[in-house]
Amino acid sequence: MKLTILALLSLTTLSVAENCRPGIWYCGYNLLRRGNYMEDIKKELASFGRPLDGHHIYDSRFQCTHDYGIFFRGTCYAGKCNDGGEGKDDNCAWGVLEGRDMKFGERGDDLRSGEANEEVADA
Question: Which segment of the chain is annotated as a signal peptide (predicted)?
Fold first, then answer.
């Protein structure tokens, strides 16, 4: 009987992972809720020379690509990356701390150049 109860409890705590939706921007913490994106997040942050600390992992935004990969778009102020709701972009409450706040290919910019954007968007 105990084994059956434990088996049922373990089934109720399982969550179904789903891919990101192409074109949508996600806070790091929302990507981690959707699936196993930790290594992808770390690779993206490292490719842009960003720290791999909790702030950058959870409060950075990533755009989902057509092949369900992710692309780093910028980092919000600590604790200010907001869930935009199902099917909508997540957003930074106080503007972007670092990075460029635009869609991939919007101006043809590639953040991988290594140059940090010093501008901070006003909220």
Answer: 1-17
3-state secondary structure of 62: strand
3-state secondary structure of 27: strand
Rounded to the nearest 10°, the torsion over CA 99, 97, 102, 61 is 90
DSSP 35: S
The pLDDT tens digits for 10-65 are: 443 344 458 999 999 999 999 999 999 999 999 999 999 999 999 999 999 999 99
pTM value?
0.68
112 half-sphere exposure, CB direction, 13 A CA radius: 8
Q: Do 10 and 47 contact (CB within 8 A), yes or no?
A: no
Domain ranges of the chain: 18-104
Query: Tokens 């930074």, residue?
Result: 92
What tokens appear for 118 in the block?
């010093």
DSSP lists the bridge partners of residue 91 as 82
Q: How many C-beta atoms surround the C-beta of residue 82 within 10 A?
A: 14
